[in-house]
Amino acid sequence: MGYAMYAVRKRTALVVATGVTAGVTLAATVGIAPATATGGHADAVGGAAGGGKKPVVRVIATGLDNPRQLSYDHGRLYVAEAGRGGRKCVGQGPEGETCIGPSSALTKIYWDGGAWKHHRVVKGLPSGAAPDGGFATGLDGVSALHGSVWGAMTYTPPEAGIPTAPPWNTLGKLLRLGHGKAKIAADIAAVEFRYNPHKANLESNPYGVLALPDGRRIVADAAGNDLVAVSPNGRARPFTVFPNHDGNESVPTSLALGPDGKLYVGELNGEAARPTARVWKVDPRTGRILGWTSGFGSITGVALDDDGDLYVSQLFAGRVTKVSHGKRTHVKVPFPAGVAVDPHDGKVYVSAWSIADRDGTALEGKRTPGGQVWKILGF
Fold it and tell me: Which sign, positive or negative, has the C-alpha torsion 165, 171, 173, 176?
């Protein structure tokens, strides 16, 4: 069963969740029992390397549908929910049917009245999922900056049998989200089909987005193996192309802006047993690759704090890793996706059970919990 059920998929990208890989992760994480959104805490959910006090996690949001990227902006946490598909099912391949419907959403999480609360601020976006609502794709990326919120919507080719009328015309696009509406800001998939910057395949899957202070937005096209820069007036163009390495394509999934002013880009090229995925360092002005940090499993989220510490979520390894002055510490998180850091207090947020809708999904004969967002303290 694939992680992106109805998007144009990479052979080495968002469909590497074989039963064996997923089963290992489920077995490793099924015993994790963090606190609820309204209080309490759970100790030692994962090994903080080198001893010392172990981190504590709290669940601050439940009932989410395949939660993916996160973005923190002025006390509010935004999560891209890929949705739970719908009633119309199309296709019948090795991964089974894909059921589609307008169930993807942008959700805001916030603290109010002594408790964490959340609600969907934009609803009705396209989603495709397994028949039980798991392993969805839809709105996968989100970036909020100074009150403006942007989203990256996956792409599906017309031959897949997907509708073309609104809201399906948002597929493959960068969206501006707010006030209950989604407006198309740029056509990301069109950049791939016009330029095909990475020549291996002609495929597009906008997956991550980052709003920059200068008004540009950078979109990670996971299937295109590149970054697309979108100007303040909506002009989209190729920006950075990532090379193959370790026998696989890069597959960029996530972006962050470091305190050094550089872009950091996580990629999916890696497995838990063979951690070859990299976090690339990129010049935000020219798109030139400046270097990388390697040794990760498949990366689905990156973030940095004001001290330059790097946080990396690894989907199939089932953990979030902190890299600080060369030292790595880990917290177990089941199927983590987006990760974000509060710049004021350094608290870390991560999407958990990101392959499940609100009711959970079937995995290796067991039912997972529904999609959640966790807060990690003492990391």
Answer: positive
